[in-house]
C-alpha cells in the first residue's frame, strides 16, 4: 500500500542520515545500497527479464562484499573492483554484466550523495566477440525430429516459429492465437515495442493449422498445459538440443539465422527490417553481427558479378 511504501522510504531516509553521520557498520555497504536501489524507479521500472539479470548480479556482488568484509562504500577501492572482475572472468560475458551492474549501483550511490567517486567507472573489460552461430536447415530438422520423438511438439513448434518469424524467445513464447489471422502473425515486440506483421511461410502455416488450440497461447508446455516460463523453456530446450547432438546451438541463434536466410534469399535491408522489427538504420548497424558472411552469399555475389559482366559484353557488341 501507499502507507507501507511511504514508511519504507522514511526508513531509507533515516538510514541515509545515519550513514552520513555515524555510519554504522551495517549501513553504507553494498548490500545496503542494493536494498535502496531495489525500490528506486531506476530498478522498479525495468522489465521483468532485465530485473532477473540484475538480481543475479546483486547476488554475486553481495557475496563479494561479504568476502571482503562488507566495507563501507567510501572505502571500496578501484583495485578491489579490478580484482573482483578478474575473479569472475572464467565466464567472461557474466563477468562483464556483473561489473556493469556494480558500476550502475555505484553511480547511483554518487547520484544520491553517498560517495563522491565511482571506483568502477570506466573499468576496462575484455570485449566478448559477437556470437556467430547459425542454424542450418539440417540442424533445424534434426531438432524438430528429436523434440517430436521426446513428446515435445511444443519445442518443435517454437523452433519453427523462431526461424520463420525471426523474433526473440520472449516474443515467441508470448504468442497467442489471436495474433495469427491465418496468413500472418502480428507481434508487438517486448524489448522495443515495435509492431511487426509477418506473413507466415507455407511450412509454418501448415503446422499452425494442424496444432490444437487447447489454450489461448500458441506454444504450450505438454506437462502443464500452460505457456512456458522462461527458465522451464530453456531447460527443456537444452535437454532436447543435447539429445539431438546440438549442444552448441541456442534458441537465440534462430533470430540471427532468420536474418541470414532472408539475406541469402536476396532480401534487402528494408525487407529484413520489416520482419525482424529493427529500425532501418539500426538494421544496417547490426548486420555485421546478425549477418555473418557465408559461402552461399559469396557465391551469389559472384554470380551477379558474372551476369553483370556478361550484360556489359553484350552491350559492347
* CATH arch. level architecture of the largest domain: Orthogonal Bundle
Rg estimate, integer Å? 25 Å
Shape type: globular
| CA-CA gap between termini | 85 Å
Helical fraction equals 55-70%
Tally of strands: 2
What would you call the structural class? mainly alpha
Strand composition percent: under 5%
Number of domain modules: 2
Oligomer: single chain
Which whole number gives the mean pLDDT?
Answer: 88
CATH topology of the largest domain: hpI Integrase, Chain A
Give the helices and strands as they follow along the chain.
HHHHHHHHHEEHHHHHH
**Count of separate DSSP helical elements:** 15
CATH top level label of the largest domain: Mainly Alpha
Strand order of the largest sheet: 1-2
Fold and architecture overview:
The chain has 317 residues and is mostly helical. It has two domains: 2-111, no CATH class; 137-301, Intergrase catalytic core (hpI Integrase, Chain A), CATH 1.10.443.10. 60% of the residues lie in helices and 3% in strands. The protein is built from 15 helices and two strands. Strands 1-2 form a two-stranded antiparallel ribbon. Helix 2 packs across helix 6 (92-111) and helix 8 packs across helix 12 (253-264). The longest helix has 22 residues, at 295-316.
Give a concise summary.
By secondary structure, the chain is mostly helical.
Amino acid at each position: 500500500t501507499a502507507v507501507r511504501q511511504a514508511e519504507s522510504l522514511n526508513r531509507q531516509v533515516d538510514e541515509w542520515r545515519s550513514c552520513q553521520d555515524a555510519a554504522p557498520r551495517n549501513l553504507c555497504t553494498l548490500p545496503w545500497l542494493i536494498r535502496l536501489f531495489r525500490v528506486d524507479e531506476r530498478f522498479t521500472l525495468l522489465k521483468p527479464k532485465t530485473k532477473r539479470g540484475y538480481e543475479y548480479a546483486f547476488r554475486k556482488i553481495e557475496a563479494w562484499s561479504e568476502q571482503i568484509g562488507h566495507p563501507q562504500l567510501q572505502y571500496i577501492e578501484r583495485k578491489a573492483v579490478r580484482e573482483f572482475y578478474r575473479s569472475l572472468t572464467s565466464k567472461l560475458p557474466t563477468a562483464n554484466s556483473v561489473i556493469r551492474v556494480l558500476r550502475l549501483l555505484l553511480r547511483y550511490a554518487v547520484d544520491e550523495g553517498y560517495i563522491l567517486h565511482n571506483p568502477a567507472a570506466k573499468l576496462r573489460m575484455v570485449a566478448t566477440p559477437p556470437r556467430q552461430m547459425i542454424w542450418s536447415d539440417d540442424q533445424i530438422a534434426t531438432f524438430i525430429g528429436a523434440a517430436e520423438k521426446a513428446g515435445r511438439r511444443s519445442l518443435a513448434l517454437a523452433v519453427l516459429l523462431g526461424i520463420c518469424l525471426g523474433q526473440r524467445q520472449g516474443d515467441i513464447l508470448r504468442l497467442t492465437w489471436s495474433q495469427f489471422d491465418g496468413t500472418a502473425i502480428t507481434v508487438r515486440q517486448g524489448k522495443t515495442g515495435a509492431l511487426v506483421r509477418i506473413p507466415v511461410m507455407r511450412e509454418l502455416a501448415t503446422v499452425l493449422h494442424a496444432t490444437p488450440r487447447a489454450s489461448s497461447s500458441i506454444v504450450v508446455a505438454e506437462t502443464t498445459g500452460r505457456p512456458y516460463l522462461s527458465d522451464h523453456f530453456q531447460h527443456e530446450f537444452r535437454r532436447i538440443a543435447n539429445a539431438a547432438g546440438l549442444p552448441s546451438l541456442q534458441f537465440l541463434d534462430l533470430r540471427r539465422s532468420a536474418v541470414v536466410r532472408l539475406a541469402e534469399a536476396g532480401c534487402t535491408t528494408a525487407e529484413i527490417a520489416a520482419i525482424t522489427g529493427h529500425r532501418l538504420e539500426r538494421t544496417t548497424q547490426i548486420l555485421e553481427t546478425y549477418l555473418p558472411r557465408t559461402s552461399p552469399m559469396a557465391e551469389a555475389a559472384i554470380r551477379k558479378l558474372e551476369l553483370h559482366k556478361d550484360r556489359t559484353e553484350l552491350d559492347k557488341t
